[in-house]
């Protein structure tokens, strides 16, 4: 039976599958792929090992499922950049959306960082294909805005890299950020104001 021909999951089956993925996300984001086991995922999910294996054939299958869903979430803000919009608004909106993802999905960010640090064996085709194509499309939009004098000229690939680095840092190094800032700070609220000012000064003609 192929994946497409499988009968739809019941409500309980979908709930159990979601529970497994949620538990696996915690295990993978703290222990990485090598340190994760089906037993640990089952314990975190509050299910038996056979129950987990009923829904997923291996920890690699769970890992790939999480990464695929993560990539869809990660790429959405770039897909939402409007080539007919106001350039500064679109860039600053993208920065804000990426920072919001770091706030809302810190485990996913750390999981993605772990995968890339390992050489991205599960994402190699996607990084050099789908992601690269999306980045090149965005670069073309940025270059057009810069040529029109609507944004200050900078190297667009590295502009995108800097946005990724400066937003995902707050998820990947959350403990460090909070330790340095100390109590009484909201890292994300402060970062939003700082990054808006930074990129506005960098790109405003």
From TrEMBL:
<dbReference type="InterPro" id="IPR001647">
    <property type="entry name" value="HTH_TetR"/>
</dbReference>
<dbReference type="InterPro" id="IPR050109">
    <property type="entry name" value="HTH-type_TetR-like_transc_reg"/>
</dbReference>
<keyword id="KW-0238">DNA-binding</keyword>
<dbReference type="InterPro" id="IPR009057">
    <property type="entry name" value="Homeodomain-like_sf"/>
</dbReference>
<feature type="DNA-binding region" description="H-T-H motif">
    <location>
        <begin position="37"/>
        <end position="56"/>
    </location>
</feature>
<feature type="domain" description="HTH tetR-type">
    <location>
        <begin position="14"/>
        <end position="74"/>
    </location>
</feature>
<dbReference type="Pfam" id="PF08362">
    <property type="entry name" value="TetR_C_3"/>
</dbReference>
<dbReference type="Pfam" id="PF00440">
    <property type="entry name" value="TetR_N"/>
</dbReference>
<dbReference type="InterPro" id="IPR036271">
    <property type="entry name" value="Tet_transcr_reg_TetR-rel_C_sf"/>
</dbReference>
<dbReference type="InterPro" id="IPR013573">
    <property type="entry name" value="Tscrpt_reg_YcdC_C"/>
</dbReference>
<protein>
    <submittedName>
        <fullName>TetR family transcriptional regulator C-terminal domain-containing protein</fullName>
    </submittedName>
</protein>
């Amino acid at each position: 039976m192929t994946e497409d021909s499988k009968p739809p999951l019941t409500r309980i089956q979908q709930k159990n599958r979601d529970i497994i993925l949620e538990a696996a996300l915690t295990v993978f984001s703290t222990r990485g792929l090598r340190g994760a086991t089906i037993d640990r995922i089952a314990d975190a999910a509050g299910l038996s090992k056979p129950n987990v294996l009923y829904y997923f054939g291996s920890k690699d299958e769970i890992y790939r499922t999480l990464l695929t869903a993560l990539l869809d979430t990660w790429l959405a803000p770039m897909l939402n950049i409007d080539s007919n919009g106001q350039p500064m608004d679109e860039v600053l909106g993208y920065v804000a959306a990426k920072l919001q993802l770091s706030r809302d999905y810190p485990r996913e960010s750390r999981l993605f960082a772990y995968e890339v640090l390992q050489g991205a064996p599960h994402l190699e085709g996607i990084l050099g294909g789908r992601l690269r194509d999306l980045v090149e499309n965005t670069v073309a939009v940025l270059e057009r805005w810069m040529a029109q004098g609507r944004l200050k000229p900078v190297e667009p690939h590295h502009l995108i890299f800097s946005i990724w680095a400066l937003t995902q840092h707050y998820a990947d190094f959350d403990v460090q950020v909070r330790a340095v800032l100390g109590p009484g700070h909201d890292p994300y609220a402060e970062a939003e104001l700082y990054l808006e000012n930074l990129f506005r000064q960098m790109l405003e003609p």
